[in-house]
Amino acid sequence: MDKEVQGWPRTSPIRLIGAGSIAAGIIDLAYAIVFNSRAGVPAIVIPQSIASGLLGINAFRDGWASAALGVMLHFGILFVAAGSYFLASRKLEALVMRPKTYGALFGLAIYLFMHAIVLPLSAAPKFKVTPASVVGDLIVHIALIGPIIALAVQRFYVRRLPGAPQA
After folding, report:
1. Which of 130, 132, 133, 146 is close enough to 103 for a disulfide, judged by CB 3.0 to 4.6 Å?
2. pLDDT digits 0-9 by tens, 60-97
3. At a CB cut-off of 8 Å and minimum separation 6, what does 44 contact?
4. Measured between alpha carbons, how far is 151 from 102 in angstroms, rounded to an integer?
5. Backbone dihedral region of 4: left (phi > 0), alpha (psi from -120 to 50 degrees) or beta?
6. What's the CA gap between 50 and 73, in Å, rounded?
7. In angstroms, rounded to a whole number, what is the distance separating the alpha carbons of residues 35 and 41?
8. Would you list the domain boundaries of the chain?
9. Can you list the positions of beta strands (E) in 13-167?
């Protein structure tokens, strides 16, 4: 059987999924820390709030251990998101051909999924939501998080096409 189907190589896509999720994760975490620091929230609270999805209120008592767990969970969630986009792009070529458009829609989907399904089902306490936080989160997800993941997938695809330069 041919090892290369529709431009997809036999090599593992883990690097692209990792690169997309790391880049998106750094931007998302940095945004959350900077945005919340304006209200006096210490930086450590942001990853602890992510860990609170599993640990509940105890995440805020566990110091750097829960912050580290929160960072791992944050990047793990984005790794799953990037992997999902990659798998979908194997069947829907438009995701690769129009990464900015579909990346923006994917960013919106990530936001909605997290806020409508994941957070309500988690052990995290209810956090104060303001219009500014909703707008800021939406902008970051639509303009940066989704498109970064989509562009990482496109880069992987284009570099594997016959005759494309390999690096």
Report:
1. 146
2. 999 999 999 999 999 999 999 999 999 999 899 899 99
3. 63, 64, 67
4. 10
5. beta
6. 7
7. 9
8. 14-159
9. none
For 53, residues 6+ apart whose C-beta sits below 8 A from its C-beta are 73, 118, 119, 122, 123, 124
pLDDT for 1 equals 39
Both tokens assigned to 101: 């458009």
User: pLDDT by residue (tens digit) across 37-62?
Assistant: 999 999 999 999 999 999 999 999 99
Tokens representing 41?
């929230």
Amino acid at 155: R
SS (HEC) of 77-91:
HHHHHHHHHHHHHHH
Tokens read off for 137: 């989160």
Neighbours of 2 (CB within 10 A): 5
Q: Which residues of 8-43 are buried (b: 16+ CB within 10 A; e: fewer)?
A: beeeebeebbbbbbbbbbeebbebbbebbeeeeeee
